[in-house]
Amino acid sequence: MTVTIKPAQTLARRWQMTGFGRDNLTLAETPIPSPGPGEVLVRVSAVSLNYRDKLVIENGMGFDLAFPFTPASDMAGTVEAVGDGAGRFRPGDRVISTFSPGWIDGKLAIGNARTLPYRTLGGSHPGVLSDYVSFPEDWFVAAPASLDDGEASTLPCAGLTAWFALVECGRLHAGQTVVVQGTGGVALFGLQIARAHGAEVIVTSGSAAKLDRASALGADHGVDRTAEDWAEAVWRLTGDRGADQILELAGGANLGKSLQAVAVGAHIAVIGVLDGFEISGPASPLLLKTPTISGISVGHRRALEDLVRAIDRTGIKPVIDRRYGFAELPAALDHLERGPFGKIVIDLV
Amino acid sequence: MTVTIKPAQTLARRWQMTGFGRDNLTLAETPIPSPGPGEVLVRVSAVSLNYRDKLVIENGMGFDLAFPFTPASDMAGTVEAVGDGAGRFRPGDRVISTFSPGWIDGKLAIGNARTLPYRTLGGSHPGVLSDYVSFPEDWFVAAPASLDDGEASTLPCAGLTAWFALVECGRLHAGQTVVVQGTGGVALFGLQIARAHGAEVIVTSGSAAKLDRASALGADHGVDRTAEDWAEAVWRLTGDRGADQILELAGGANLGKSLQAVAVGAHIAVIGVLDGFEISGPASPLLLKTPTISGISVGHRRALEDLVRAIDRTGIKPVIDRRYGFAELPAALDHLERGPFGKIVIDLV
Amino acid sequence: MTVTIKPAQTLARRWQMTGFGRDNLTLAETPIPSPGPGEVLVRVSAVSLNYRDKLVIENGMGFDLAFPFTPASDMAGTVEAVGDGAGRFRPGDRVISTFSPGWIDGKLAIGNARTLPYRTLGGSHPGVLSDYVSFPEDWFVAAPASLDDGEASTLPCAGLTAWFALVECGRLHAGQTVVVQGTGGVALFGLQIARAHGAEVIVTSGSAAKLDRASALGADHGVDRTAEDWAEAVWRLTGDRGADQILELAGGANLGKSLQAVAVGAHIAVIGVLDGFEISGPASPLLLKTPTISGISVGHRRALEDLVRAIDRTGIKPVIDRRYGFAELPAALDHLERGPFGKIVIDLV
Amino acid sequence: MTVTIKPAQTLARRWQMTGFGRDNLTLAETPIPSPGPGEVLVRVSAVSLNYRDKLVIENGMGFDLAFPFTPASDMAGTVEAVGDGAGRFRPGDRVISTFSPGWIDGKLAIGNARTLPYRTLGGSHPGVLSDYVSFPEDWFVAAPASLDDGEASTLPCAGLTAWFALVECGRLHAGQTVVVQGTGGVALFGLQIARAHGAEVIVTSGSAAKLDRASALGADHGVDRTAEDWAEAVWRLTGDRGADQILELAGGANLGKSLQAVAVGAHIAVIGVLDGFEISGPASPLLLKTPTISGISVGHRRALEDLVRAIDRTGIKPVIDRRYGFAELPAALDHLERGPFGKIVIDLV
Question: Which residue intervals define the domain Enoyl reductase (ER) in the entry (chains A, B, C, D) (predicted)?
Answer without folding.
Answer: 21-346
